[in-house]
């Protein structure tokens, strides 16, 4: 067990940090600390330009193989990059779906032509992706997707019809990957396909969803005979579920330490307020602040265990608890922030509905325990996969 | 950065698990509980002779293994899991106390004794009102030839078995550390009757016990006591993680057998979600345990500050204390009616979790330590 990074890793850290300090300046200084969950709707054009700058510096897709423009960075280096990125106030990445989900999926399951067509655009920060998984009737039960993909008579293209929901950054994206049913006679995990679909076409309509924060970062995406070339199904028809599930395992938690840096900034702000407004002397608040401190450090050591685990790609016990841990921690922090602020927690930045950072934290963290697998689904996963408890009998879908 | 065990550490873990599975089942625990000392002395002899775990933290020059806290917590986690009725944690605590005395020849001799399996108890506190310096209940007065000690120390982890004791005593406003033999005149060492019977605790009464000046190992041991308490919290955290893990495992095993409404109750989400919450607490405490053990090892070589050690120990004590009690308590609930019977082991873990949770400071007291660091003027972590 070794808590410290190696000298070579620390040198890499210096490189990353120097580059970020030099480049998150001038026009880009306004987007420091902006974007990301709960703040995804701001500075989109500037953040797109930032993707280009990152790409020029060689800082997109660093975990990809060098053959595809990456750095073949080790897990440690990826962790360090994410940490330094967060420390420097790097804005929420509009390119993260392509880099962390589409790219690794294509590298693992894509055809040579698909890699040639799509990887360079992601690496260059020029083509943005969004995710087409959830549907109104397929949330926790993702395999209930009803969006259909039908190969037309010519055999040249698929026609996609249906509705996706909770799609972040849909209106900014060039492409969406879509899980759709290729065999209408099949149910559940069978008969699904994984498609790469251009967003800018008549068959695709986007409608933003206004959230409790008054802002909109999620969308509904409607497909009405949308076109997808027959070259753009990943794998074979019927393999969609396997590919979709593989994709969820790619991220390997390298961004978790960066995420924790953002959490630390939020916790520090709450602690600072508590010290100044006197609530820091209230015994109940003191207990909760200490709990928050412990919880965040627990996330860190959970991540380090997770990242130090074997390279077999299987999900370890500490990886399985991670989502449940961070989402609950973050939601509790939002409430703690409100309690520390007391009566002032109500006062907004501006009329008509401009939330302060902590109000936004409080409201948007209610989503944390829902998206990406609700806390209840996470508990099912832990019980069934880590503890080997039986699955609940299923109803007819 | 590598937060995983080395091959040697993994081998140690396997050998501990293998040995305890074979030699320390629940029947052994219950026999020891019913015995006068509360300890399985044969098992202790066997461990000392064959496994040598008592020597983990004893430096090599004193005949020990010269390993660190990471190795100690690997062994103690399994001890907590099996409720192994031997005074290993006590020996580790005493070794850590003696290591604060650096190059003293007496400490060297005592450490060598620990490596041979001698029972040396740390008598540090009466635990009224606290486990730290303010709770020290023995007073030392200097005499012509040495010292006279009077007062009480409780919760001595060697129970009533120690042949020799390290006694923390007040000297005016300072703290001193003394050694004395358990059979000396004026010394009364006995076992405290405790609700948790898996972990015997001793109580020491001293009435004008005279010792020579040689027996005073330190005249200024207050800071060292704080460090030893923090190291002990890390060792205790390992037992708590083991206790929490066993509570989870036994509960999952039980609900997987128990059938109601035509299904095993393990298939109901109401049960599964409780089990998931238990695992979350076990793994979270385990992550903090490994971190704290690493910090402890750094502190032993002065590579980590006493504040870092205190913070790590407080975080672990809060997390592991809560985890053990939550898992054992929830474990009883998942066992249903049989959970409250004497027959099932879950009640043993429940009592053990309670006693460990309070030992060396409750989780809420540990959180207050952290709150002071974060929120008070001059706090070491204040923003």
UniProtKB/TrEMBL annotation, chain A:
Residue ranges constituting the Acyl-CoA dehydrogenase/oxidase C-terminal domain according to the UniProt record: 238-386
Keyword terms, alphabetized: FAD, Flavoprotein, Oxidoreductase
Domain Acyl-CoA dehydrogenase/oxidase N-terminal: 6-125
The UniProt record lists the keyword Lipid biosynthesis: no
Pfam families cross-referenced by the UniProt entry: Acyl-CoA_dh_1, Acyl-CoA_dh_M, Acyl-CoA_dh_N
An example Gene Ontology molecular-function term: flavin adenine dinucleotide binding
InterPro entries given in the database record: Acyl-CoA_Oxase/DH_mid-dom, Acyl-CoA_Oxase/DH_mid-dom_sf, AcylCo_DH-like_C, AcylCo_DH/oxidase_C, AcylCoA_DH/ox_N, AcylCoA_DH/ox_N_sf, AcylCoA_DH/oxidase_NM_dom_sf, Mycobact_Acyl-CoA_DH
Known cofactor(s): FAD
Chain ranges of the Acyl-CoA oxidase/dehydrogenase middle domain: 130-225
Claim: Oxidoreductase is one of the keywords in the record: yes
GO terms under cellular component: plasma membrane
Family: Belongs to the acyl-CoA dehydrogenase family.
Record-linked PANTHER family: ACYL-COA DEHYDROGENASE (PTHR43292), ACYL-COA DEHYDROGENASE FADE29 (PTHR43292:SF3)
Protein name, entry field: Acyl-CoA dehydrogenase
């Amino acid at each position: 067990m070794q808590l410290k990074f190696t000298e070579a890793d620390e040198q890499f850290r210096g490189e990353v940090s120097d580059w970020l300090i030099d480049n998150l300046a001038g026009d880009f200084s306004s987007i420091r600390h902006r974007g990301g969950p709960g703040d995804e709707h701001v500075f989109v054009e500037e953040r797109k330009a930032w993707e280009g700058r990152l790409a020029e510096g060689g800082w997109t897709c660093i975990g990809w193989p060098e053959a595809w423009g990456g750095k073949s960075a080790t897990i440690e280096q990826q962790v360090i990059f994410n940490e330094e990125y967060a420390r420097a106030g790097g804005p929420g990445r509009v390119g993260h779906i392509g880099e962390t989900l589409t790219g690794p999926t294509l590298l693992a399951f894509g055809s040579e032509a698909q890699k040639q067509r799509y990887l360079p655009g992601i690496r260059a920060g020029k083509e943005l992706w969004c995710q087409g998984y959830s549907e109104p009737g397929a949330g926790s039960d993702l395999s209930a997707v009803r969006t259909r993909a039908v190969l037309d008579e010519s055999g040249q293209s698929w026609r996609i019809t249906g509705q996706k929901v909770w799609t972040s950054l849909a209106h900014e994206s060039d492409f969406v990957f879509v899980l759709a049913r290729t065999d209408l006679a099949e149910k559940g995990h069978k008969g699904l396909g994984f498609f790469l679909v251009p967003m800018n076409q008549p068959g695709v309509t986007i409608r933003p969803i206004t959230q409790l924060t008054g802002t909109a970062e999620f969308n509904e995406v409607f497909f009405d005979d949308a076109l997808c070339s027959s070259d753009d199904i990943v794998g074979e028809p019927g393999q969609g579920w396997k590919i979709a599930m593989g994709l969820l395992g790619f991220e390997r938690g390298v961004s978790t330490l960066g995420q924790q840096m953002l959490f630390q900034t939020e916790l520090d702000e709450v602690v600072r307020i508590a010290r100044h407004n006197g609530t820091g002397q209230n015994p109940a608040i003191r207990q909760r602040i200490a709990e928050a401190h412990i919880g965040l450090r627990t996330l860190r050591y959970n991540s380090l265990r997770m990242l130090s685990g074997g390279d077999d790609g299987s999900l370890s016990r500490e990886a399985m608890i991670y989502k449940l841990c961070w989402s609950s921690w973050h939601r509790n922090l939002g409430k703690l922030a409100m309690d520390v602020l007391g009566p002032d927690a109500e006062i907004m930045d501006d009329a008509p509905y401009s939330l302060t950072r902590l109000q936004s934290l409080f409201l948007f963290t209610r989503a944390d325990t829902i998206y990406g697998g609700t806390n209840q689904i996470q508990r099912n996963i832990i019980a069934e996969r880590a503890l080997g408890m039986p699955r609940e009998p299923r109803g007819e879908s | 950065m590598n937060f995983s065990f080395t091959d040697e550490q993994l081998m140690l873990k396997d050998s501990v698990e293998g040995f305890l599975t074979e030699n320390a089942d629940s029947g052994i625990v219950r026999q020891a509980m019913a015995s006068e000392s509360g300890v399985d002395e044969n098992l202790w002899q066997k461990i000392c002779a064959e496994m040598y775990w008592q020597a983990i933290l004893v430096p090599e020059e004193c005949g020990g293994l010269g390993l660190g806290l990471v190795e100690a917590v690997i062994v103690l986690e399994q001890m907590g899991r099996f409720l192994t009725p031997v005074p290993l944690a006590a020996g580790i605590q005493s070794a850590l106390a003696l290591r604060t005395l650096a190059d003293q020849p007496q400490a060297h001799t005592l450490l060598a004794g620990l490596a041979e399996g001698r029972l040396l108890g740390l008598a540090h506190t009466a635990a009224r009102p606290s486990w730290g310096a303010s709770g020290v209940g023995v007073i030392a007065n200097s005499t012509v030839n040495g010292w006279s000690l009077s007062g009480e120390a409780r919760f001595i982890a060697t129970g009533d078995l120690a042949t020799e004791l390290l006694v923390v005593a007040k000297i005016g406003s300072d703290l001193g550390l003394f050694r004395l033999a358990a059979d000396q005149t004026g010394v009364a060492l006995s076992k405290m009757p405790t609700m948790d019977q898996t972990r015997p605790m001793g109580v020491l009464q001293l009435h004008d016990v005279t010792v020579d000046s040689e027996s005073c190992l330190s005249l200024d041991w207050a800071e060292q006591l704080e460090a030893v308490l923090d190291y002990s919290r890390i060792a205790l955290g390992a037992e708590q993680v083991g206790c929490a893990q066993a509570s989870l495992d036994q509960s999952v095993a039980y609900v997987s057998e128990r059938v109601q409404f035509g299904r095993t109750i393990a298939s109901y989400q109401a049960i599964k979600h409780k089990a998931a919450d238990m695992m979350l607490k076990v793994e979270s405490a385990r992550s903090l345990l490994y971190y704290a053990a690493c910090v402890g090892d750094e502190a032993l070589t002065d590579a980590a500050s006493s504040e870092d050690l205190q913070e790590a120990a407080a975080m672990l004590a809060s997390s592991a204390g809560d985890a053990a009690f939550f898992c054992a308590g929830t474990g009883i609930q998942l066992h249903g009616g049989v959970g409250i019977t004497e027959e099932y082991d879950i009640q043993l873990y429940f009592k053990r979790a309670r006693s460990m949770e309070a030992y060396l400071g409750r989780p809420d007291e540990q959180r207050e330590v952290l709150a002071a660091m974060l929120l008070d003027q001059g706090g070491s972590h204040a923003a």
